[in-house]
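Human:
Class, as today's exercise, you are to examine the entry below, and be ready to discuss the fold:
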Amino acid sequence: MVPLAAAAAVVACSAAMMEAVTLARRLALLPRPIALVGETGVGKRLIARFIHAHSGRAGPFVTVGGDEVSDSTPPLRTGDDRWAFGAGQTRLRGPYERAQNGTLFLEDLPLWPREAQSAVLRVLDEGAIAPRGIERGLPLNCRVIVASQRALDELVSDGRLLPAFRWWIGEFVIAVPPLRGRFVDIAALSYHFLDRARAELGGGVPTVLEPEALDRLLSYRWPGNVRQLQGAVEWSGVQAAASATDRIRIADLPPPVVRDETAAVLVDLEARRALSRWAFERAGGDRKRAAHLLGVHPNTIDNHRRAATR
């Protein structure tokens, strides 16, 4: 179990997330395009940065979002760079050139106009860009990562993604799992965000979640995934600090999380055992501190750890 992947701060403790991170690490050194598929807020951009950090590329990580793209977006339509005419007649480099020897991250590409998708495909096929003001084209030397909220084959069937783009990606697809049901990741992320809030806000932010509050976080379905959890934990930390309590209570959680009436996710025995193992590692092998993190008796930590070795 790896509580925190150092590069890009990817918290990955659950088997599902570790599988995604392991595959990302294996594919990082390959120059070919990769697609990251997952719901909104699961951390696709973070995984993309993780891939970039392990790619050995010295260039920058450049993001192009769907809201920046239209059929007439010049840098994506032709591979040309944009120009800005000021006092110094400055040439502004477009995303392809800025990402040279680095990574170009294309967010929500299936939502882009088809002409913009075709433009990216042409640049990938030709393997070159043609910046204005430069006589010869430049070889395209950047890794391209595409993000999508839906399965690529579904998007092709719906006419949202060009079939040629799907063929270009091939099997190089990393599925980033949703947060619901990833109980150990929810706990690890909650304490990760709590630690960060305490570092940013200073004293007063509690170091521990009450068992009832943690259980609510574990069983909530998190439609906004990690992004929503981060906001919920930061809000709870601020609320608890204002109340001068030494731990986050269920009353400190955001009202939508507390009042949600949709079916809760069941935290089963195997999940409880995994949580005990995570808490034991976070506590540096101190069973009492681990029990304090989860609000259980130290014997429970021991029993769950023993069950894992049978």
About this structure: The two ends are 18 Å apart (CA to CA). Residues 183-201 form the longest helix (19 residues).
